[in-house]
């Protein structure tokens, strides 16, 4: 195979590996950010539950304080029963005491609801607290693994970039310029294998004469249809081409 042709095929292989690595490298920070965001959300939810528990306790204390205030008021009203002078005043005072006792029962029901709610919140807080350290450790371990993986990929990319420079330096300036130009204006690949007489990039059948010239691999040739650089690989052992257009037939 022509040295330029062999080198440009290798350059393309390295470029593809570089592109794949760059996608991986660029995706890892987002993965790390997602993990950290998940942990942050977990911690925020845990803190919200703790705040809700604190608020619940305050609400219960306020309700209990209200009950105490009403009980003191009832006691005062009961003492005043002995001071009223008419039956109407007596009945009015009893009715007021009954109303206050009814209000106390309603508030006691609210306190009971708060206590039940508090038990549920407390259980959730305790379970979340028990899992929190494990979550922190898991996320830290996964982030460390991703960071190490990213560094490994970056080291590999640096090595490939060095290899790419070496291969590019071995190419003639004209072929390198041709390759770069094709990469700029054509979707990958810039260098395409010809198989069974077809350009594998555009799937157009080569003219018999062009195909026969290409099979020699002794020059850098381009596709007459898509302008990509072309190369030919001999069929593997056990295969042969049939006819001028190179249809492969498996030999038994």
Question: Could you explain how this protein is built, in words?
Answer:
The relative contact order is 0.12. With 252 residues, this protein is an alpha+beta fold. The protein folds into two domains: 3-170, Orthogonal Bundle (Helix Hairpins); 174-250, no CATH class. It contains four helices and six strands, in the order αααββαββββ.
Question: What layout of secondary structure does this protein have?
Answer:
Layout: H1 3-81, H2 87-170, H3 173-185, E1 191-195, E2 198-199, H4 208-215, E3 221-222, E4 229-232, E5 239-242, E6 247-250
Parallel strand pairs: 1-4
Antiparallel strand pairs: 1-2, 3-4, 5-6
How do you describe this structure in short?
With 252 residues, the chain is an alpha+beta fold.
Number of helices: 4
CATH architecture of the largest domain: Orthogonal Bundle
Shape field: rod-shaped
Distance between the termini: 29 Å
Using only C-alpha atoms, the radius of gyration works out to: 41 Å
* Average residue pLDDT: 88
Order of helices and strands: HHHEEHEEEE
The count of DSSP E runs of length 2 or more, i.e. the number of strands, is 6
CATH fold-level topology of the largest domain:
Helix Hairpins
